[in-house]
Amino acid sequence: EHPRDCVRRELREEAGVEIEPLELIGVWMDCYGGDGSAVATLNFYWAARIVEGVPEPHDDVAELRWFEPSEIPDDDLAFAHTREVLAALRQKHA
After folding, report:
1. Most buried of 7, 13, 29, 32 (most Cβ within 10 A)?
2. Model confidence pLDDT, tens digit, residues 21-61
């Protein structure tokens, strides 16, 4: 699956919206799972805009919230590399 198709599908499945990917922020490696059976992940980050739908949490998403990049709480991030992603995003749009 092409990464652009993947981000469209994931946001359709997880948030119920159709998006237009605008800019690739970057690609980071990480691991998913902290119990010793961690699986390597390849994570693509995109800037995008919603073109259809209203974001609603679906499937395995408990909550959706919007933050300005400078307002994202650093103490509750899912992956270790997320701070690097946010730094890259802030640098691109400073």
Report:
1. 7
2. 999 999 999 887 766 677 888 999 999 999 999 999 987 77
